[in-house]
Amino acid sequence: MARAVHWGMILAVFVAGAAQAAERRPLDGLYACLDRADAADRAACLEGEARRLREAERRREVVVLDRAQERDLRQRTAASPAPSKEERPAFVPIDTTLTGVQSVGGKWLFTTQASGDWIQAEAVELGRTPRVGDRFRVRRGMIGGFLANIGTGPAIRVRSLQ
Fold first, then answer.
1. How far is it, in rounded angstroms, from Cα 146 to Cα 155?
2. How many Å apart are CA 122 and CA 146, to the nearest integer?
3. How many degrees, rounded to 5, is the angle at CA 77 between CA 73 and CA 80?
4. What is d(CA 162, CA 150) in angstroms, rounded to the nearest whole number?
5. Tens digits of per-residue pLDDT, 74-117?
6. How far is CA 101 from CA 80, 131, 159, in A?
7. In degrees rounded to 5, what are phi and psi of residue 148?
8. Which residue of 62, 106, 130, 155 could cross-link 123, Cys pair, CB 3.0 to 4.6 Å?
9. pLDDT tens readout for residues 49-76
């Protein structure tokens, strides 16, 4: 879910799951700090919330754009409509080896030499820990998704990070 908030000359776009968005909007903590009567307490609160927002921006959970960047983004997305099914290049199944493996937030990030980076789409337990050098096969799944097999393990859902 994405939420846009206009704040002066800055547009902030927040990307979060529906449960997280319903729980707390990203700027609520910052605004709550302004209501504190004690100046030292208010300053400490504002500093803590600013650090939280900076970390969320670093993790790309919060994206901040000024109006010119927003306008440019809207023009680029309007000018390039999604390609039709006939215009999209056909997916060629991938059969390669892993050159990098990293655990990221309960999911696995897979790096290959020729076919880029892939990330596990759902946080499910794998049969064993994937390793560099394991065979990595990706094929088209149902409804446009992708399925990957690591070594001789069962298929897992993945998405490309390209």
1. 10
2. 12
3. 140
4. 19
5. 877 776 665 666 666 777 889 999 999 988 888 889 999 888 89
6. 34, 6, 15
7. -130, 145
8. 106
9. 999 888 888 887 777 778 888 888 787 7
